[in-house]
């Protein structure tokens, strides 16, 4: 338990609305990823996420988060492995396809199988093949920590960015 909690300290209630919070978070520019996996029965699952971050170099750890109410929660929480695919500037349509509700997210998607059969999206700027090391329920999300077993990247490829609720494929310096 943290020192603040053990001393009986708590955070003050927010003085802002959920929409204000979301808009403020949107001011932090991020890359865009698609997290992919294969279920025990061989089904493909995937979703667009911009909640990706490095945690540690030794051991190599990354994290991402998923809403507790997500339809893919069971597949990711019970699976042993997943891949994080960092999207390239020309993959906005793919980000939108994997963010959409309903329909076949995998329709027309080109991928190769990673070392454990996890789908790796063709054209991604970088891929991280992860062992599902740990999960932490916090608020309305679950934080997944993955231990990276293999990674790769394309030199000089431009990433897709997300800021203020919009995608950006061109990056002026």
TrEMBL record:
<dbReference type="GO" id="GO:0042602">
    <property type="term" value="F:riboflavin reductase (NADPH) activity"/>
</dbReference>
<protein>
    <submittedName>
        <fullName>Flavin reductase</fullName>
    </submittedName>
</protein>
<dbReference type="InterPro" id="IPR012349">
    <property type="entry name" value="Split_barrel_FMN-bd"/>
</dbReference>
<dbReference type="GO" id="GO:0010181">
    <property type="term" value="F:FMN binding"/>
</dbReference>
<keyword id="KW-0560">Oxidoreductase</keyword>
<dbReference type="InterPro" id="IPR050268">
    <property type="entry name" value="NADH-dep_flavin_reductase"/>
</dbReference>
<comment type="similarity">
    <text>Belongs to the non-flavoprotein flavin reductase family.</text>
</comment>
<dbReference type="InterPro" id="IPR002563">
    <property type="entry name" value="Flavin_Rdtase-like_dom"/>
</dbReference>
<dbReference type="Pfam" id="PF01613">
    <property type="entry name" value="Flavin_Reduct"/>
</dbReference>
<feature type="domain" description="Flavin reductase like">
    <location>
        <begin position="25"/>
        <end position="169"/>
    </location>
</feature>
């Amino acid at each position: 338990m943290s020192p603040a909690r053990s001393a009986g300290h708590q955070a003050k209630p927010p003085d802002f609305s959920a929409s204000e919070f979301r808009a403020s978070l949107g001011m932090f520019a991020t890359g865009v990823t698609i997290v992919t996996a294969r279920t025990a029965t061989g089904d493909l699952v995937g979703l667009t996420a911009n909640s990706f971050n490095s945690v540690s170099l030794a051991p190599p750890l990354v994290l991402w988060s998923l809403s507790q109410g997500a339809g893919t929660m069971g597949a990711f929480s019970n699976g042993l492995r997943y891949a994080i695919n960092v999207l390239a500037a020309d993959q906005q349509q793919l980000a939108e396809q994997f963010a959409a509700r309903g329909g076949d997210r995998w329709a027309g998607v080109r991928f190769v199988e990673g070392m454990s059969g996890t789908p790796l999206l063709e054209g991604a700027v970088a891929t991280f093949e992860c062992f599902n090391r740990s999960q932490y329920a916090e608020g309305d999300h679950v934080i997944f920590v993955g231990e990276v077993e293999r990674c790769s990247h394309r030199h000089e490829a431009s990433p897709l960015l997300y800021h203020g609720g919009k995608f950006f494929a061109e990056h002026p310096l």
